[in-house]
Amino acid sequence: MAQGVKVEDLSVIFGSRKQREAAIEMLDDYKPDEIREKTGATVAVKRINLEIEENELFVIVGLSGSGKSSLIRTLNLLNRPATGDVKVGGRSLMDMTKKELRYFRRNDVAMVFQHFGLLSHRTVLGNVEYPLEVQGIEDKERRQRSMEAIELVGLDGWEHHMPNQLSGGMRQRVGLARALTNDPELLLMDEPYSALDPLIRREMQNELLKLEDTMDRTIVFITHDMNEAFRMGDRIALMKDAEIVQLGKPEEFFANPANQYVKDFIADVDKTRILKVRNIMSKLKSVAKLGDDRKETLDFLKENEMDFIYVTDEKRIFLGFLKIEDLQKSKAQKIDNLVHKDETKIYRNLYLQDAWEKLNESTYNLPVVDGKGRLRGVLDYDIVVDALAK
Ligand SMILES: Nc1ncnc2c1ncn2[C@@H]1O[C@H](COP(=O)(O)OP(=O)(O)OP(=O)(O)O)[C@@H](O)[C@H]1O
Ligand SMILES: [Mg+2]
């Protein structure tokens, strides 16, 4: 199970203890520049609140120095908050004992850095194995898990090469494979692709989306490139001067930019090439599962004034839909034989442009699935029209 993250009243302040204490006093009434002038402390993150859902690909974007790294580094407590707390899967990081924190860092969370951070004297395999080695995992299992991760990022065949024999894109893959070996529930990526040239970068973005599609994982991804942010993010937080200027789905930035700064930031973004189905799909409030009771499902639809409901199996794989009139007519105990098998569904990583045709032909809103065929949401005709028109 992937885990959600809750950031509460979080501040990160750099400076001596005395400077930091003085800065906390001033936090609510002064801007970071003023605090630096008066105290010498740097307020890198200022009283931020945000919630990241499990399985979400959450992007933090902003110019250099806006506080992105300072913020993401609190999510595994590489930075200690000056105020507030971070909760992962409901557990407070600040409340963890040293031992619990060590366990959390080794098992539940992993980080990929901008400059790869590879060990130059070790092979690809040696690098990927490293975290498992530190954990004392025995040879055979270590090798097996590392090779799985190497295959996952498309580097099989390269495991005995040294980092300096690899291109930048390949080194970044090694960094990702290393982060994946302990199957973290929370993956933190701090500008992982910034050092790559545009074509490789695009390829890596698509690969990460594909990877994320088939694995349950919460990902926090940092970039200073708005195009990358919109291409990747389910939701995006735009940071400026230690605070979040706007937080929402990509589409919401276009529809309702919070201020002139946001407008300028998104001015050069071509949204038809960036908005994906996943960015504007709506969440499903309710879904029926194979094996559900017919009568109960019928009552549920009536209560909620719905005339149909989507059906999945127990692994959330999309199967089709149920119509209220069929539920009414039937005497069956279970819903299973009443499901209309439906082939029209839409893949969530399609660009909106490409999904449009299918949606236009359909008389219904379309169910949205991920790479495994799991039901993730629904694409609403009106919302798409609205998004493309603006
Ligand atoms: N270890 C540190 N000690 C002192 N100041 C720091 C430290 N780390 C960051 N800062 C300061 O905190 C502020 C925010 O920096 P941060 O690295 O979080 O920004 P960023 O958004 O990640 O920038 P970039 O895009 O350049 O990586 C900056 O003013 C920076 O100088
Ligand atoms: Mg940074």
What topology does this entry show?
Elements: E1 5-14, H1 17-26, H2 32-39, E2 42-52, E3 57-62, H3 68-72, E4 83-88, E5 91-92, H4 98-107, E6 109-112, H5 124-134, H6 139-152, H7 168-180, E7 186-190, H8 198-214, E8 218-223, H9 226-232, E9 235-240, E10 243-248, H10 250-255, H11 260-266, H12 277-280, E11 288-289, H13 294-303, E12 308-312, E13 318-323, H14 324-329, E14 340-341, E15 346-347, H15 352-361, E16 366-369, E17 375-379, H16 381-389
Parallel strand pairs: 3-8, 3-9, 6-7, 7-8, 11-12, 15-16
Antiparallel strand pairs: 1-2, 1-4, 4-5, 9-10, 12-13, 13-14, 16-17
Helix pairs in contact: 5-6, 5-7, 6-7
The structure holds adenosine-5'-triphosphate and magnesium ion.
Plain-language structure description:
The protein is of the alpha/beta class and 390 residues long. It folds into two domains: 53-75 and 97-277, P-loop containing nucleotide triphosphate hydrolases (Rossmann fold), CATH 3.40.50.300; 288-389, CBS-domain. It contains 16 helices and 17 strands. The strands form four sheets. It has a six-stranded mixed beta sheet with strand order 6-7-8-3-9-10. It has a four-stranded antiparallel beta sheet with strand order 2-1-4-5. A hairpin with a 5-residue loop joins strand 16 (366-369) and strand 17. Helix 5 (124-134) crosses helix 6 (139-152). The radius of gyration is 23 Å and the shape is globular. The model has no long low-confidence stretch (mean pLDDT 91). Bound molecules: adenosine-5'-triphosphate and magnesium ion. Adenosine-5'-triphosphate is lined by residues 14, 42, 44, 62, 64-70, 224. The site of adenosine-5'-triphosphate has 12 residues, from strand 2 and helix 3.
